[in-house]
Amino acid sequence: MDDRHGERLDPKLDRHGERLEQGLAELGGRPPSPELLLRADAAIAAGMAQGRLRRRSRRRWQRLGSAALTLALVLAVGLASIRISPAFASAVRQLPGMAAIVDAIREEYSLNRTVQDALDEGYLQPLHLTQDHEGVKVTLEGLVADDYRMMFVYTVAGLGENEHADVGKVRALDRNGQSVIQGAGFSFDGREEAVKRQTMELMLQPGSPLPDWLDLQVEVAGAPYRFQFPVDRELFADKSRTLPLEETISIENQQLRFTSMRISPLSVAIEAEYDPANTMKLYGPVDMKLTDDSGTEWGGVGYSAGSLEEHKVRFEFQSPYFRQPKSLYLSGKTFRALPKDKGLIVLDAEKGELLAAPDDRLKLISSSVDAKGMKLGFELRVDGPDSPSRSYSVLGSDFTDADGRSFGLHLQGGTETSDPDGRQKLSYTYGPGDYKQPLTFEISNYPNYIEGEYRIRLPLEELPPEQ
Predict the structure, then answer these.
(1) Is residue 100 within 8 Å of 153, Cβ to Cβ?
(2) Residue-wise pLDDT tens digits, 84-117
(3) Fewer CB within 10 A of the terminal residue: the chain, N end or C end?
(4) 212 and 114 both lie in a single domain
């Protein structure tokens, strides 16, 4: 192991860990006593003191990381028990500094039942790694992960009055310097607070295992930050199971076949295929729900289409992994869809003319082309079963010009504003190029609907056991 980021505990630290383990074991389902908490305080303080004595010459961010790592190693002896005992999870929450980390993750993922369950089971790696760049401190507080994603809560402190904790480029590398992620998502804290608390979710590349060590490089408020730390694979990895499916639904004669379901600690992923013979292109469900045999609904996490093979899609939901239900049920009624011959938008950006669209609900309200690139503005009227507040991004990232050449110059785009009547303003920006008007865009989503009720049982008792 790289000696900058972790070492074997010496006998003194082992004894501190043993005393903490004994203290946790004494709980026996009871709340921790003041005496036990004082003993835990002493064990943690002693371990951190040893870390400070042995790393006084390290750079500050490395030293802070090492102190947090010492805490993690001292706690590791109890983690196996914490995973299956809410009493132990409660005890760890009351250790110094742990309550703030657990509460921060609970708050940021308050609508995610899966993350709440994971925290109840102690399925958390505390980090508390801090870096300072010209007075702006970024602290990775904690990590929840599985074989497919890593979810971080972090704080940003020291920003100026008009500065924002915007996130730029993100890289996540393993020990060999290879990237392990295919995408990232973020939440932003818009409150006027001295300390901003935000989340970062990294999606692992397909087939890439959860790394046992991570080099996380992230740009926050325009400045680079870098964190290197071990990942607790024993806690997080190799927990998923997959069940083959052979179920087909038909909605207004459009076929969708479900082929497999994967359940992991943080998500349920259901793979499916649209029939190539369908006369309509389906853009995703409006009201698809996943419920367990107790009637509990597990909210949707995402819908993937474009990044998969043609006709293949993935529906992702929160996971009942820790509750171990016997069955899940997939149900719904409505999909967004368009006839395949109406799935294109054709426009002349120089003249400001919309030449082809699915219907009159989409209007081109502004356009410009210059040396800096192209900007397009639309108004879209959303009605039907979708919520008026649902945001749409209608245009795909690529387009084809009048000579049939394809351009991938998309810079940004999506919904700018929406009103209670369902009218949305959309804007798109593209880089400069020698494209010839008119331009053709493939529609990526549209508020047009087909309906037909469906309900499928997914028997979890048929899942293979964990390896």
Answers:
(1) no
(2) 345 555 555 565 566 777 887 888 888 889 999 9
(3) C
(4) yes
